[in-house]
TrEMBL record:
Pfam families per UniProt: Peripla_BP_2
CDD domains: BtuF
Source organism: Thioalkalivibrio sulfidiphilus (strain HL-EbGR7)
PROSITE patterns for the chain: FE_B12_PBP
Protein name per the record: Putative vitamin B12 transport protein
Biological classification of the source: Bacteria, Pseudomonadati, Pseudomonadota, Gammaproteobacteria, Chromatiales
InterPro entries according to UniProt: ABC_Transporter_SBP (IPR050902), ABC_transptr_periplasmic_BD (IPR002491), Vit_B12_bind_prot (IPR054828)
Amino acid sequence: MNPTQHASLDTRQHPAPPLRRLARVLVLLCLAALPLQALGEIRVSDDTGRELVLAQPAQRVVSLSPHLTEILFHIGAGDRLVGTVSFSDHPEAAAELPVVGSAGQLDLERILSLRPDLVLAWQSGNPPRQVARLEALGIPVYRNEPRRLEDLARTLERLSLVTDRQAAGRDQAIALRAGVEALQTRYAERPPVRLFYQIWDQPLMTINDAHLIGEVIDLCGGVNVFGSETALAPRVSREAVLAANPEVIVAGGSGEDNHGWLEDWRRWQGLTAVQRENLFFIPPSLIQRHTPRILEGAELLCQHLDEARARRSEVSP
């Protein structure tokens, strides 16, 4: 046997040199550090129970609602957005994105031109036929419809999964749950306050108890005078509000600093809310847009209801 043959046999019969073994260990460690979805497809259920399957984390996302646009920025996935709808104005970077119509009227050609590998749809806010058309064209669609604050926390977690931003999504969800728990602890025993929450003026619209804002009202110790209505965002008449005679009226507005809707109620001096100066404004993006900033809106609402409770002593006989 010549030296060359001997060397070859020796290599097969003995363990790999230390440097080679080290290289193998390093490769295994790198693989272990990869997120699970990098090693296979991503599966997640949306808010309608549909299973969304992606071969890899989404790289080109189109959002069909301002709240979904904002959520992606919250979880650090704003760089994945290639398009959104009108009124997507928070944070400032969102306003620079290409616009694909409004939430209620989508420009399908514009969406397709952006070549999305994921579309985030608002179940109750987007036209169902247009969303279904996108799916029929082979575009993965995630439908979102948070009705409870816990649903919002899960949205943060799920969207962070499909965009490979799990750490940020987890942190945001933990912070939201902690904030909700803190408000529950602080306001659980406060006396109830009957209120009317106005989300639009013409037509006059409110929300029922199944709406996410309904849970915020309950969290603060409020009682929604139209909470038992069937529709999620029912239309109501001025006469119905006058008959309900709420102790508090809370409104957003057509802008972030437009108090005009509240001023209109001053015409009805017989309303308890008017008599006691319990007309409160909350910027709509803080409570009517379903994002982590809803905690800020909830804080404001809880404070306003405490103001109304304090004013009861001013009118006591």
